[in-house]
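Handout, page 2. Input:
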Amino acid sequence: MSQYEGILSDIWKKVNRGDSPSYDEIVFMYDSANINDLGRMARSITDGLTGKQVSFVSNMIMNYTNVCNVRCKFCAFYRTGSEDDAYMLNVEDVVLRVKHFYDTFGIKQLLIQGGVNPDLPLDYYVNLFQTLHEKFPDLGIHGLSTSELSFISKKEKITIPELLETLRKAGLETIPGAGAEIFSDEVRKILRRPLGSGKEWLSIMEEAHKLGIRTSATMMFGHVEESRHKAEHLLSILELQKKYHGFVSFTPWNFEPGNTQLEKENIVKYRAGGVDVLKNIAISRIVFNKHLPIIQSSWLTNGVQMGQMALLYGANDWGGTIYDEKVIPATGKSVGNLRKEIIIESVKEIGMIPVERDNMYRTIRNYN
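Output:
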């Protein structure tokens, strides 16, 4: 007999059969279900997928430029290019910074993201990826948001598949999920994201999956979205995942309002609380079930202790170490650096097993 009652019991039966919750059922989970019931359900699914193992990667985030012509209201990082603190790193600068963390900490993943900088040609990215790949051949390049990719393809007058093939030959291994936010144009209009950019995100990811390039998926919550928008967002990702199985992980992360236009205009006053964080972790695990096995805890915006709680509510990947990240600190939130020793200790503290991985989720070392 199910330990859950009513609609949640029906959802549990569907999940056990391998079926996916419906739109209405996802909205119900957001609006009416007990958070601890959701957590137990989600953790049970995760236990069946990866047991008590929690993966993490030694990585570095390289924000190569903060100049951006999109200027989203939820971003405190971008600059127009005329400010004193606007910057663009040349290839030599990037290599020097990466070398320090590669030699010191043995990083295995390099997340490369910046702004949509109109001054940078395709050659910049090709040269950057080729140089990094030649100097650090075992370092997985996890690079560029769909916004950056879309702009480069238009600027260079080439198709997305042509662009992706060019970048893959240069050294690109995987594509991060940045730019997803919430797919709904209703929400994106308020966030000052280009209308249609949600569908474009899905389209670019589909082209990548067709080529065999693996990618991540994300959802930003805790701003102006409603439960229905999140339900649509999750189902859109699930639909694409069932077609190609190209997503390697999903990360729900909460919006940080500090220093953003949304905060200045009094549209969003506070960040989402812990219950919302855990609810989004649990529901995403329930919706994606076995179709997308890796749910990241998103400790970066929530801190180490909430990262631990996220594992108890269904996440099974910590994400990565953080060295030299610039975007979140731009909101005024202190992030600092997080070494892998802290991740290992934090995972063990809650009775789980840390497993170090590479960019493609291959195991490097089990810390049992």
